[in-house]
What we know:
Blueprint: H1 11-17, H2 22-61, H3 63-67, E1 71-72, E2 77-78, H4 81-112, H5 115-130, H6 133-158, H7 165-168, H8 177-200, H9 205-213, H10 218-247, H11 250-255, H12 273-280, H13 286-322
Antiparallel strand pairs: 1-2
Helix pairs in contact: 2-13, 4-8, 4-10, 5-8, 8-10, 9-10, 10-13, 12-13
Amino acid sequence: MTVTAPADGSPAASLLEEGAGAGPDRAFRTVTLVAGTMVLVILLLIAVTMTVRAWPAFSEFGTSYFFGTEWVPSEGKYGILPLVWGTVLVSLIALVFAVPMSVGIALFVNELAPRRLRRPVVTVVDILAAVPSVVFGLWAFYNLLPGFQTVFNGIADAVAGIPVLNTLFGPSTGSSFMSAGLILALMITPIITSVTREVFATVPENDKSGALALGATRWEMVRGVVFPHSMGGVTGAVMLGLGRAMGETVAVALIIGARPEISLNLFGVGETMPAQIFRQLSEAGALLRSALIGLGVILLVLTVLVNVGARRAVVAVDRRVKGTA
């Protein structure tokens, strides 16, 4: 016997909608709505509470807090630009080294590696992602800084007579923006790799096989099929790594040099916002504590702006790739 579903709008259809499946559906919608709303509420509460605690510093120093170029709490100077500069510069250095490496590892695991080699590589990457940041910091502080100093000074000597390059790559003590950026690159590579690998795995096999069947080389298939399909997911992976890099504290504090200044010398010492909070907060007075919490507010705003900008860029690229622009 064949049962025909009633047409929409009929009394029987209404009875089916109000039947056993309607309650669970409504409950599911409610739970997901609450979960999604809670994320926004929590973010808003964090921003509001931190801004309230940072307001004494904002009101006391005014625009000099946001645009000042000197951060010397002992002299009452609270200009955050050197700390913002250090945070952004170190994070960009980390991304420059980590993103190509992460994408390369993900492509190797998904497209090139023999099956017997994939699991060990994935396991090692996952283990690296779980290593605490303080371990990386201590390892770099005791084992890598002398080597960094030798290598950086060798590069500085080699470019000493070349304009621009001699400004970007000057003398070094080992502790530097570049040292912190390289360690951060090592720390965020497993995170970006893991997410990117999962995104690449979602590319339909039929699309890849079709490209190869039409005569495309493996690189042409990756460039024409895998990358366009995965652009949004890869951007999300990069943003996740950027968030880790911008917020990293202990490892950076150990090897960056703790001197807040705006310098174009990538081999020179500097400071970041999280590292400064880590150094000062435990012994800070009321005003300094408020200024340090203000650094957290600025870091939150920077992270949100970078993510929003990245999402807009991905949408624009997707439209251009798909021909809908």
